[in-house]
Amino acid sequence: QAQLVESGGGLVQPGGSLRLSCAASGFTLGNYAMRWFRRAPGKEREGVSCITSSDGSTNYADSVKGRFTISRDNAKNTVYLQMNSLKPEDTAMYYCAALRSRNHCLGTIASWGQGTQVTVSS
Predict the structure, then answer these.
(1) pLDDT at residue 1 above 90?
(2) Burial of 59 by CB count in 10 Å (0-12 exposed, 13-18 middle, 19+ buried)?
(3) Three-state SS across the chain?
């Protein structure tokens, strides 16, 4: 059974850092482009970042550019999101998703994780 499990969320002060992990089981993560989403209370889901499978190309939402870094370790079947200089407006539930594409980030979602909560507050 295909499954994605996120971890690494928590409570952090503004300016702090967290690294989220998304571990895949039941399928080979290396065959999919991977995207991180987030949803804050009362707001629509936002695409945060994406990384392709074919060449590791990345893209980021303007709101996180320069602060977040997406990466993948296909040998560990895991994708990561390093989040630095966190702001209160980064508070949200973060989800990873496998996309039905290898070399672009426009594929439909093949699998979702259950999410991990990130709270940025002093």
Answers:
(1) no
(2) middle
(3) CCEEEEECCEEECCCCCEEEEEEEECCCHHHCEEEEEEECCCCCCEEEEEECCCCCCEEECCCCCCCEEEEEEHHHCEEEEEECCCCHHHCEEEEEEEECCCCCCCCCEEEEECCEEEEECC
pLDDT over 70 for what percent of the chain?
100
| Strands 58-60 and 33-39, sheet pairing | unpaired
**Site of tokens 């407006």:** 89
Backbone Cα Rg of the chain: 13
pLDDT at 118: 98
